[in-house]
Amino acid sequence: MSAPTLQPDPVDEAAAQPGRDSVELQLCAIWRKLLDRQDVGVHDDFFELGGHSLLAIKHVVEIRKHFKIDITVSDLIGTRTIAELAPIVRQGGSREQGPLVRLQVGTSGVPVYAFPPVSGTVLVYPQVARAVGTAHTFWALQSSGLNPGEEPLGSIEEIAAHFIRAMRTVHPDGTPWHLLGYSMGGLIAFEVARQLRAAGERVGLVGLLDTRTTVEPSDDPDFALRALLFRGLRLELDVDWLRSLTPEERSAVLLEKAHAAGTVPADFDAERLRRMIDMYQHNLDALAGYEVGPFDGRLVLYRVTDRAMEPENYPEDLGWTEFAAEVTVTAVPGDHFTMIEPGNVEALAAAIRADLTDLAELTELT
């Protein structure tokens, strides 16, 4: 079978290309804070964006503090871009070995936490974080098993408990917990909220981004590969042709195309690719075994208006009223996939901001 002719567009090095893994995303957040600008890409030059020697020193301090590694000003000057700096951070034993990824530094003391979809990565959230704004520090969490030395967790309950332990290391005492989740991430947010309430914690916003109470297992044996291609690597390649290759050939092709498209970092290797594919299946298995239980709090379901992709029998509340004490359904533009893309994410973020503001005002009154 011949190779497909459809190839991704070449990378525009002049564009502000966003981070492609958790390290690059966190470095982008640090640069945005230091340089006081939002248009930071992984190929941008720190000094051409307005950096100078004093900011370089502050940059080194931020990296040491955030990633717990030893890095020097000469490392920064010698690399200049996030794409060049990120491998040094990874090799230095960065805090990528853990689920927490800080995407935005906020001005208030109440953070927002966002949980991963079936891919297990945080890559769906940077545009959400930026659109929501800087009133809240925005943390995203990635699934265990994506990084070397990590084992995937077998149930939604275990995943939620693991995430709570990580969040407690950064969560300010006495502040409410604001939780968001896109797709499968909404089920994790829901279970996190249940466990926090059971522990006597004050839960604020529990926002479900077009999340259903049940997820039917896929009968497509290539689902994980398709999901990785189209959502993770953003490549349009023929799946049947890929399946005709040996595992080694397939990995080599995917890495070559992803590197050329700029959707993975330059030091992304076959082992990381395998873990990404496996993560889809691990999370699907966890979803299949999860039974939604009662929640004595309020949920906000951000429900898409474009439902052409849905079966006709999906209820307006996607089944949540049966399990929560209160459910608010908020309409947002787009379909399940485009709701978090530019053009639609701004309206979603505005709705999230409004809910966070309402909860803050309610807290002040009580």
Percent in helix: 40-55%
The CATH architecture of the largest domain can be named as 3-Layer(aba) Sandwich
CATH-assigned fold name of the largest domain: Rossmann fold
What percent of residues are in strands? 5-15%
- The poorly predicted ranges are 1-15
Over all CA atoms, what is the radius of gyration? Answer: 20 Å
Distance, first to last CA: 67 Å
Number of domains: 3
Strand order of the largest sheet: 1-3-2-4-5-6-7
Query: What count of helical segments does DSSP give?
Result: 12
Q: Which CATH top level class of the largest domain fits? A: Alpha Beta
Outline the structure in words:
Its cofactor is pantetheine 4'-phosphate. GO terms for molecular function: phosphopantetheine binding. Keywords: Phosphopantetheine, Phosphoprotein. One of its GO terms (biological process) is monocarboxylic acid biosynthetic process. It is a single chain. The chain has 366 residues and is α/β, with parallel strands linked by helices. It folds into three domains: 7-96, ACP-like (Non-ribosomal Peptide Synthetase Peptidyl Carrier Protein, Chain A, Orthogonal Bundle), CATH 1.10.1200.10; 97-214 and 292-366, Alpha/Beta hydrolase fold, catalytic domain (Rossmann fold), CATH 3.40.50.1820; 223-287. It has helices spanning 22-35, 53-67, 73-79, 82-91, 126-132, 156-168, 184-198, 223-233, 239-243, 247-261, 270-288, 345-365, and strands at residues 100-104, 112-115, 138-141, 177-182, 203-209, 295-304, 324-332. It has a seven-stranded mixed beta sheet with strand order 1-3-2-4-5-6-7, sandwiched between helices. Helix 1 crosses helix 2, helix 6 packs across helix 7 and helix 8 packs across helix 11 (270-288). The chain is globular and about 60 Å long. 39% of the residues are buried.
